[in-house]
Write a structure and sequence with these properties.
Catalyzes the reversible conversion of 3-phosphohydroxypyruvate to phosphoserine and of 3-hydroxy-2-oxo-4-phosphonooxybutanoate to phosphohydroxythreonine. Its main location: cytoplasm. Its cofactor is pyridoxal 5'-phosphate. The protein is of the alpha/beta class. The protein folds into two domains: 243 residues, 3-Layer(aba) Sandwich (Aspartate Aminotransferase, domain 2); 102 residues, Aspartate Aminotransferase, domain 1 (Alpha-Beta Complex). Helix content is 35%, strand content 15%. Helix 1 packs across helix 6 and helix 7 runs parallel beside helix 9. The structure holds 4'-deoxy-4'-aminopyridoxal-5'-phosphate. The site of 4'-deoxy-4'-aminopyridoxal-5'-phosphate (PMP) has 11 residues, from helix 3. 4'-deoxy-4'-aminopyridoxal-5'-phosphate binds next to helix 3.
């Protein structure tokens, strides 16, 4: 069996050890004679799984006690609607930082329910930097501030946490593509959400970390399944949750804990990204157009010197086993996603391949 080097932006590759364990446990989970997919979400076996995921999330991210950890379906995209539906007060006013294609979608959804103020945007330069913002720009009656901490498509990341408001306006963060990749002070945020299919496991599950006072205070008549209170009160077991996705997240979190948790993975992620960016910066053939200070550690868009060579690169890369390097259609070129599960060796192999390609075609 041959596995390729998989640079997909998501669903993304999983650690091999996680896949092997899932395979071992697939037919009979802990010798019960059934798989985890085939048992009740109210069984003791599954309850232990969901409780373990919450415990590991709390431990790895040091989530304070006054936060709930919720397991929701509908992808990160459903959060674009759930956030305004739950956090709007009567005046229905929110502020958004517009940093890429995903914030565009978040803004479009929230605008259906209330008044949205874009406090900073990098759209005029195709989102090639993370726009900075000042707390004093915020309307004091705004219900929350929304940011996307890693822009999966454009390859930028938010680093200036000192810019976050400390005046009680809750910060909502879409961390779909960088959760668990670096140190994070959860207490600076009112709500964090992330789809699981990059650093947390597989598609089907979205994790929401929410400060308790933001649950159950919506000024909107909110459908039951879109209300955080439903999940908080029932410990995410109001209805059938995505059981297999939650189980896979347990395996991923156990793998992460085993290798040393966030401090260790953050070190590895910085090292992998540095190797890649250092190569791009020394090459006269490959390049990145993202502002250096704002470069993502997870998603690295890059190009050669022409569209034709980009296509040729993607084609030959795939033949050589470097998979899913095609950039998002809105940006073009290439993109390498280096999530937690990406081994250092794979990055070194890719850079070596890029050097050879440059020598041949430059
Ligand atoms: N936000 C970000 C930052 C993303 O990268 C994505 C895509 N994976 C989404 C939101 C949408 O996620 P989903 O497909 O889970 O709805």
């Amino acid at each position: 069996m041959k596995r390729v080097f998989n640079f997909s932006a998501g669903p993304a590759q999983l650690p091999l050890d996680v896949l092997i364990r899932a395979q071992e446990e697939l037919l009979s989970y802990q010798n019960i004679g059934m798989s985890i997919m085939e048992i009740s979400h109210r069984s003791i076996h599954f309850k232990k799984v969901i409780e373990r995921v919450e415990e590991l999330m709390r431990e790895l991210l040091q989530i304070p006690d006054n936060y709930k950890v919720l397991f929701i379906q509908g992808g990160a995209s459903l959060q674009f609607s759930m956030v305004p539906l739950n956090l709007f007060k009567e005046n229905k006013h929110a502020s958004y930082v517009h940093s890429g294609s995903w914030s565009k979608k978040a803004i479009a959804e929230a605008s259906k329910f209330g008044d949205i103020h874009i406090i900073a945007s990098s759209e005029e330069q195709q989102f090639t930097y993370f726009p900075s913002f000042q707390v004093h720009q915020l309307n004091e009656n705004t219900n929350y501030l929304h940011i996307t901490t890693n822009n999966t498509i454009e390859g930028t990341r938010f680093t200036c946490t000192e810019e976050l408001p400390k005046n009680g306006i809750p910060v909502v963060a879409d961390m779909s593509s960088n959760i668990l990749s670096e140190e994070l002070d959860v207490s600076q945020y009112g709500l964090i959400y992330a789809g699981a299919q990059k650093n947390l496991g597989i598609a089907g599950l979205t994790i929401v970390i929410i400060r308790e006072d933001l649950v159950g205070n919506t000024g909107v008549d909110c459908p039951t399944m879109l209300n955080y209170e439903t999940y908080a009160k029932a410990e995410s077991l109001y209805n059938t949750p995505p059981t297999f996705s939650i189980y896979m997240t347990m395996l991923v979190l156990e793998w992460l804990k085993e290798l040393g948790g966030i401090p260790e993975i953050a070190k590895r992620n910085i090292e992998k990204a540095k190797i890649f960016y250092d190569f791009l910066d020394t090459s006269s053939f490959f390049s990145s157009n993202v502002k250096k200070a704002d470069r993502s550690l997870m998603n690295i868009p890059f190009t050669t010197v022409s569209k034709e060579l980009n296509s040729l690169f993607i084609q030959i890369a795939e033949q050589e086993g470097f998979y899913a390097l095609k950039g998002h259609r809105s940006v073009g070129g290439m993109r390498a996603s280096l999530y937690n599960a990406m081994p250092l060796d794979a990055v070194l192999e890719l850079v070596a391949f890029m050097k050879q390609f440059e020598e041949k075609y430059a």
